[in-house]
Amino acid sequence: MPYLVEMLLFLLPFAAYGLWRRLNPRTQPSTILLILAGVGVVLMVGGAFWYGVSRGSAPGSTYVPAQLEGERIAPGHTEPPR
After folding, report:
1. Which tens digit of pLDDT belongs to each residue from 52-62?
2. What separation, in Å, do the N-terminal and C-terminal C-alpha atoms of the chain show?
3. Facing residues of 15 across strands?
4. Where are the domains of the chain?
5. Residue 76 contacts by C-beta under 8 Å, 6 or more apart in sequence?
6. Residue 19: how many CA atoms within 13 Å on its side-chain side?
7. Which residues is 62 bridged to in the sheet?
8. In terms of pTM, does the model score above 0.85?
């Protein structure tokens, strides 16, 4: 079921654009709309790049998965190279 929701959320913008084109066959998207869409794409890619760079672990570090210590769960973490 979650996959169906994810697929619908993915296809929703395409369906909205198709509906808009169906209802307005002779109109073209305005220049400001295209500029805003381009700015949105640039911000999305830049944000994804920044998140990947800021959350990455150090090269050569080792990931230690979450472990159960008694009644407490120790979260996963990375250890520096030895």
Report:
1. 888 888 888 99
2. 44
3. none
4. 1-52
5. 63, 64, 65, 66
6. 6
7. 79
8. no
What are 5's two structure tokens? 């929701």
One-letter amino acid for residue 11 of the chain = L
Residue 34 structure tokens: 């295209």
CA atoms within 13 A on the CB side of 61: 12
CA-to-CA distance for 62 and 55, rounded, in angstroms?
A: 15
- Tell me the pLDDT tens digit for each residue of 58-74: 888 999 999 999 999 99
CA 42, 2, 67, 64: dihedral to nearest 10 degrees? -30
Q: Which residue has the tokens 């994810």?
A: 6
